[in-house]
Amino acid sequence: MDDRIWKYISAVLILLLALSVVSIAVLYYQVNPPAVSGNQTGPVVETPANFTLVCGGFNATETEVAELRDQIAFLQGLVSPKQSGSTIAVVPIFGIIDEYTALQVIPLLRNLAMNESIGGVLLWIESPGGVVGPVMSIYSEVKKLALLKPVVAYTGGLMASGGYYIAVGAQKIVASPLAEVGSIGVIYVHYDLEKNYEMNGIKVNVFKTGEHKDMGAEWRDLTPEERKKIAEMINTYFQAFLNAVSEGRNMTVDEVKNFSTGETWFAKNVTGTLVDELGGMDTAINVLEKLMNVSGAKVVVYKNLETPEEFGVYGSTSLYLDPRYLTPLVGGG
């Protein structure tokens, strides 16, 4: 065995030792919680080995442990013997999800499903969500793929709304501790520019075959009846989202509703519910390898799947989207 392999093995042992030290410190703190004086903002645990664990509003230990585990998974992958026929396909789903994203991702997922050399698929999702139709189409394709081979979803930063909707089609979800996940909900955007049109001397003549054919058009406001119809529509989309999460995460619909306020959550705060494990990319690969019952799998990343920067909301539309990302959609500053 060459020196490089021995270096990797040594590094694994060092990381395991570091992980043990952190785990012992956490256990010590849980068993022997220290008293807190009135002028302290959070308890501080000091060990004889000059190891200090500060516990306040933010628990840094969880992040450090997840990072150590991810490094160990990386080094284990380097020293594991490569097995023929055990290839992992990494499929990036980045940015706002629209028709272009679906056009790129769906054919790829179908090809991977039929490719016998691919043993598992890792969905690398860094997305705030997007348009309802493309999101649901990609989710449906992920579900079909998961019937044929293991699928794991991973995020290092953001898996929100439609991005999370797609992720629940996978068997497992892995996320970095401070990644934002969730934003379970639907938002409908309607711009009423009728006054703006009048101020600029623009008159719109509309010829339509039905009373609601121009419902949601920007040149007029919505009628009370149309507002009711839109509320029913987005509630239908919302119920579909709830059901998808309920099925994918093995939770009741009522349990899912506890996380359906529209907000995102740090992954470290929803482990065991919205997320299965904390860690980085190598942790996600390790989880997938366990589902594939292999080790040392070859990893292939499929590139050029990012959504184009130019993306606009024209008229009105329903979105599985984190509302913080509405501004770039309409070209605002």
TrEMBL record:
Gene3D superfamilies xrefs: 2-enoyl-CoA Hydratase, Chain A, domain 1, 6.20.330.10
UniProt keyword annotation of Hydrolase present: yes
Residues annotated as transmembrane: 12-31
Family annotation (InterPro entries): ClpP/crotonase-like_dom_sf, Pept_S49_SppA, Peptidase_S49, S49_SppA_C
The Peptidase S49 domain, residue ranges: 149-294
GO MF annotations in UniProt: serine-type peptidase activity
Coiled-coil regions listed: none
UniProtKB keywords: Hydrolase, Membrane, Protease, Serine protease, Transmembrane, Transmembrane helix
GO annotation, biological process: proteolysis
Protein family (similarity comment): Belongs to the peptidase S49 family.
Protein name as it appears in the record: Peptidase
